[in-house]
Every structure is written in C-alpha cells, then in structure tokens.
Specification:
This protein has one domain. About 80% of the residues lie in helices and about 0% in strands.
Length: about 300
C-alpha cells in the first residue's frame, strides 16, 4: 500500500491527490449511507452495522494479507480501534435519529461538527492553510449545512443532541484515522473495523436480550431480511470500508482539514441517489449547497 501511495504522489501533487481522494470518499460514503439506510428499514440498525462491518472486516484482512502489508505498531492499532468505536457510535446514532424523524437537523448539525473538529485539530497541529483554501473550508462548512438540512426538520433539543453526538463521533473518526494512518492503511483500518463490529454486535445482543425479556416464553430473533437486503448490507459494508481507505490515504498525502471537510460532503451523494432512485425532490437550499460546494472545491484545489 505504501508503494501505491508513492506512485500516486509521484504522478500528481499531494494536494491534488488529497482533494480527489477526499471527494471520492464523500461519494462512496454517501452511497454507503443510502443503501445502509434502506437496509435499516428491514433490520435494526445495530444489526445492519454488525453485518456490514463484519463483511468489510473480512475484506480488509484479506487485502492486507494478500498485499503483505506491514503489521501496525501498537499506537496505530490503538488509534485504529478508537476510530472504529467512533465510527460505530456515529452510524448507530444517525440511525437512531432517522427512526425518531429528526434526521434533517441531526444530519446538518453532525455534518458541520464532524468537519469543524478535525479543522481545529489541523490548525493546531499543521498551522493555517493558504488563504484560498481557508476560504474554501469556510464555504464547504456552509455547503454541508445547506445540503444536509431538510425542510420541516423538527427543531428539537433531541435532534440537536443526537446531531452533536454523531458529529462528535465522526469528527473523532476523522482525527483517529489520520493518526492511525501513520502506521499504514489496511491493518489500521482492519483494527478500526474490528472495534466497530464488536461494538455493534454488543449493542445488537443487548437489544435482543431486552426484547426477549419483554416476551413471555419467547426468545427474540432477528427477522430474515431476504437476499436483496443482505446484498444492500454487503454493498454498504464494502463501500464504507472503501471510503475509509480513500480518506486515510488522503490524510497521508495532504492536510487533515482539507480531507475532512471535503469528505464531509457525503450527504450530497445520498441526496442525489435518493432523487434518482427514489424520486425524492431536492430543495432549493440543497441545490444551492451543492453549487456552493463546487466553489469550495475549486478554492481548496487552488
């Protein structure tokens, strides 16, 4: 994997590669959220995360063994595990918000907070970026809010709290993946996925135990979702792991703040897929946010 990164950096500048990989990560993450959200209509969200992340864990370990990647040091493995806990927590909190009907406000709050946290971290550890990039980061933050906000979103304390929890989790994910990536890519990501799978499996088991106690002479069982839903879960798992991989490589080649802000544009691809496949209409604010995001990308790429 290290050789591959060197080849990328040799072909194009690190900054250009960071922008391209971050945008690819956003598109892939958004697609994963779309198909995972559909699967969560048939299965509890912790179960969806458990199945999806188990598959991607097997994929990451297989790729690491085939590639012969160097095993990470203890520090990288720990950061990878922390990234997994943050990832699993953030995804399950977002699904909780979806179930409660507060997704619009939650997504807007979480998207901005997820981008702000690594930006502050990068400013403190890497210094300020150039003026055009700084302007692009600010515009991207506004674009994330506009894209994620949905009409009629309930302005409730619960939605804001869920958004803050999810955003804090994803912000930590961005930072921990950056730190874990110093020791490689595939094995730290496998450590991350192992932690998120374990967390989601534990939450699923606890939920089933509680459901079992609520029934008389009956054990709670997960319903058979069907092969189509399992296929969606598989796609969600593979795409999520791929997005994490692209993002981690992007942070190895360039600045954390740029990679995190551009990757946080992932709601745009979710909304576009919903518009094309589910015939959901985008709002004027969302369309304007996507246009503003393009301006931000240009400024960050200068």
């Amino acid at each position: 994997m290290t050789g591959g990164i060197g080849a990328v950096a040799g072909g194009v500048s690190g900054s250009t590669a960071t922008v391209a990989l971050s945008l690819a990560s956003a598109a892939i993450w958004g697609t994963s959220d779309f198909v995972g959200g559909i699967a969560a209509r048939r299965l509890p969200s912790p179960a969806v995360v458990t199945l999806a992340h188990s598959l991607s864990l097997a994929l990451l370990i297989s790729l690491a063994l085939i590639h012969g990647s160097t095993r990470p040091d203890t520090q990288s493995a720990v950061y990878g595990a922390l990234a997994g806990v943050a990832c699993g927590t953030g995804v399950m909190v977002l699904y909780k918000a979806l179930a409660l009907g507060g997704m619009g406000l939650t997504a807007a709050v979480s998207g901005v907070l997820a981008a702000v946290m690594p930006v502050i971290w990068a400013f403190a550890t890497e210094g300020l970026p150039r003026a055009p990039q700084l302007a692009g980061i600010v515009l991207a933050g506004v674009a994330i809010w506009m894209i994620a906000s949905a009409p009629g979103s309930p302005s409730s304390k619960q939605a804001i709290l869920l958004g803050a929890a999810a955003g804090g989790s994803f912000g930590c994910l961005y930072i921990f993946l950056k730190l874990a990536g110093r020791g490689g890519v595939l094995w730290p990501l496998a450590c991350s996925r192992m932690a998120s799978t374990t967390l989601a499996a534990a939450v699923t088991w606890i939920g089933m135990r509680r459901a079992g106690r609520a029934k008389i002479d009956s054990r709670a069982k997960l319903p058979w979702p069907g092969w189509a839903v399992l296929g969606l879960i598989a796609i969600a798992g593979v795409f999520d792991a791929s997005g994490n991989t692209f993002y981690t490589i992007a942070t190895r080649l360039g600045r954390l703040d740029i990679a995190a802000v551009l990757s946080s544009l992932y709601p745009a691809s979710t909304i576009l897929l919903a518009a094309v496949l589910l015939k959901e209409r985008t709002t004027l604010s969302q369309t304007a946010g996507m246009a503003l995001a393009l301006v931000a990308v240009v400024l960050i790429s200068v």
